[in-house]
Design brief:
This protein is an alpha/beta fold. It is built from 15 helices and 16 strands. It has helices spanning 10-30, 35-44, 67-70, 73-89, 104-116, 130-143, 146-149, 210-223, 239-247, 264-267, 304-313, 324-330, 333-343, 347-361, 386-390, and strands at residues 33-34, 94-98, 123-126, 152-155, 163-170, 179-184, 187-195, 201-207, 232-235, 250-262, 278-281, 284-286, 297-299, 302-303, 317-323, 370-377. Strands 2, 3, 4, 5, 10, 14, 15 and 16 form an 8-stranded mixed β-sheet that branches. Strands 1, 6, 7, 8 and 9 form a 5-stranded antiparallel β-sheet that branches. The protein has a 3-stranded antiparallel β-sheet with strand order 12-11-13. Helix 4 packs across helix 5 (104-116) and helix 9 packs across helix 11 (304-313). It is globular.
């Protein structure tokens, strides 16, 4: 691994070694792991995975910064876009956040809902990490008025009973365990993680099963060309099942996904022949997912065409698809920014607000790399801001 990456401390290295021993044991007992299983263990193994252990992940002290960590503008725009739908759905409408991160979004969103005079019946957080859940509890208890904090409830699994409301997921799809594939002599192979003769992790390819092969052939048919031999990328054959699992009981409402990614024909460009997989460690991005397992956030960009297909298969229609910058403009960023600037206590606070806008909006930062997709089901009227709908680029899917 290049020396430009920060050197881990002794405790971090010991933590990674513990996960490495678990992975070695799994491979020794069951054979090479599909990369998706390896990624799942690296991110979510109880007590050892990246999101399951106690080290700070988000913000300046962590490994990366998400939009909610920048400040309240992002959450206020999301609330402004979604609040009319909650009003239309009535007093029984809930708000469900998938993966609550540090709790920054929930804090800002609940305050924004309170300012708007419309609160969801419940603010639900589906958080698989016990460590992050506890951090969220502490943050919200310390920062929110008691009457707002009382609306928050954590879930171990998606709602099983039918419900109405809004589901929101920021940078969630990119962390789903990705399948890596390649082509050899026109046949589809799947990437696995194995051990070399000295017990070190290594990547190997094996013939893909029918699910993975079928998913790759579907992409080829959709883009109108076959992948060349040696082309390597990621795919999520489980995505339709995942969407059905998390949103199957949402009988009326919206889903909003914001993540970095592309429409399918851009995701699988010929020149993007090693995929989009990245590892993030202390604000450094690199492309070796086998380096220090458990200490790196592993992510892959989102194929938003696949997300649209998965939503369709679960009974949802695409309501809008557009870059994050256009979404935020359509969701009232200009007015929200002006209001927050007027409230700012000093010049430093106003400067920080301006920096938030730059990071959220500039094309070389989050503005164009991140995309927003809204999916709807069971609504008589689509209550979204007209400016947002006017910027819809769903035809690109």
């Amino acid at each position: 691994m290049p020396s430009r990456l920060p050197e881990p401390g002794a405790d971090e290295r010991a933590h990674s070694d513990d996960l490495l021993q678990l992975l070695r044991g799994m491979i020794a007992s069951h054979g090479p792991l599909p990369f998706s299983q390896y990624m799942e263990r690296c991110l979510y193994a109880p007590g050892l995975g990246y999101y399951s252990a106690g080290r700070t992940k988000f913000g300046a002290a962590g490994d990366f910064v998400t939009a909610p960590e920048l400040g309240p503008l992002f959450a206020r725009c999301v609330v402004h876009a979604l609040q009319p739908t909650l009003v239309a759905l009535g007093e029984e409408a809930d708000f469900l956040e998938l993966g609550g991160g540090s709790g920054a979004f929930a804090e800002a969103a609940l305050l924004a809902f309170a300012d708007s005079g419309t609160l969801p019946r419940q603010y639900l957080i589906l958080e698989p990490s016990a460590d992050l859940r506890e951090r969220q509890r502490e943050r919200l208890a310390a920062s929110l008025p008691a009457e707002l904090n009382a609306r928050v409830r954590w879930l171990d699994r998606p709602p099983e009973q039918d419900w109405r409301g809004v589901l929101f997921a920021n940078e969630v799809i990119d962390a789903l365990p990705a399948t890596r594939f390649t082509l050899r002599d026109g046949e589809v192979y799947e990437e696995y993680v194995a051990l070399d003769g000295e017990g070190r992790l290594m990547r190997v390819d094996r013939p893909a099963d029918a699910l993975v092969s079928g998913a790759v052939r579907h992409v080829e048919r959709d883009v109108g060309s076959a992948f060349t031999d040696g082309y390597r990328s990621e795919i999520l054959p489980q995505l339709p099942y995942w969407v059905q699992a998390v949103a199957g009981s949402l009988v009326a409402g919206l889903m909003l996904f914001i993540d970095y990614g592309y429409v399918r024909r851009e995701f699988y460009l010929p020149q993007r022949d090693d995929g989009t997989l990245m590892a993030h460690y202390r604000h450094h991005a690199h492309n070796d997912p086998l380096y220090l397992p458990g200490l790196n956030d592993l992510t892959a960009s989102v194929d938003f065409t696949a997300l649209a297909e998965a939503g369709n298969s679960a009974g949802f229609a695409v309501a809008a698809y557009l870059p994050q910058a256009q979404f935020l403009i359509g969701a009232g960023l200009q007015e929200i920014f002006a209001r927050e600037q007027a409230r700012a206590p000093d010049e430093h606070a106003r400067y920080r607000l301006s920096q938030q806008v730059k990071t959220l909006m500039l094309p070389d930062q989050m503005g164009e790399r991140f995309q927003a997709m809204l999916l709807a089901r069971g609504l008589d009227v689509l209550a979204l801001p007209a400016e947002l709908m006017a910027a819809d680029q769903g035809g690109r899917l």
